[in-house]
Amino acid sequence: MNNLLMKNPPKAVVLLSGGVDSATALAIARSMNFDVYALSFRYGQRHRVELEAAERVARQNRVAQHRTIDIDLRQIGGSALTADIDVPKHGSVEELEKGIPVTYVPARNTIFLSFALAWAEVIGSSDVFIGVNALDYSGYPDCRPEYIEAFERMANLAIRACVEGGRTMRIHAPLIHWSKAQIIQKGMELGVDYSLTLSCYDPAADGAFCGRCDSCLLRLKGFKEAGVKDPGRYKTKD
Q1: At what angle do helices 180-189 and 214-226 cross, to 10 degrees?
Q2: Number of domains into which the chain is organized
Q3: Fewer CB within 10 Å, N side or C side of the chain?
Q4: Rounded-to-integer distance, Cα 89 and Cα 206, Å
């Protein structure tokens, strides 16, 4: 029986943006002996370098498949990541905006999880992983535990594999209650190579991090508190 399980590990769809959190979530899925099917999106974001990071992480982890799906959220806009709106820059984490910032992309995680759910149904998977976090994050409403719980309930009502096939879908958000430092520490334990990742909303053309957007500041804070050197490449300060 054990040999059979080794030959046919369960499959999991992992949302992979190329950042610290998604790379760690992928490593956790692998540590749970899932066969990983990584899913990324070219959704009209400001830059391609995050997709290049996702490709690096997927290759390094030798995932079963890595797909990048095209969605043009620039037709909807409403975010500094998908419209001609400046990405806010700050001098420290303490200066981050209160409330939901302009880098929030309307309904993004709902859209991404819906695609992941569809792919999971097709490949015979009952498990979807997403690297959302409700502590050291930018205040996005679709990163909260109650959102993940609600989506999981909906998922089990939405697809034929559950309604007729008796499958139970699970939406895993293993990082949701962890600080960024805890996420990084767990990733280090699992051998995540964070030099492959990108954590910047407004990187330079060569991929260098701006060092001043919300995502960069939270990453810097996380590595500092974890006591780990940040391998990210940052732009030289003006």
Answers
A1: 60
A2: 1
A3: C
A4: 19
Q: Is residue 231 part of a domain?
A: no
Contacts of 144 (CB under 8 A, 6+ apart): 134
Would you say residue 61 lies in a domain?
yes
Q: What domain range includes position 137?
A: 2-226
User: To the nearest whole percent, how much of the chain has pLDDT over 90?
Assistant: 84
Residue 24 lies in a domain: yes
Helix/strand/coil (H/E/C) assignment for every residue in 24-92: HHHHHHHHCCCEEEEEEEECCCCCCHHHHHHHHHHHHHCCCEEEEEECCHHHCCCCCCCCCCCCCCCCC
Q: What is the pLDDT of residue 1?
A: 39
Indicate whether 235 belongs to any domain: no
Banded pLDDT at 237 (limits 50, 70, 90):
low
The per-residue pLDDT for range 169-203, each reduced to its tens digit, is: 999 999 999 999 999 999 999 999 999 999 999 99
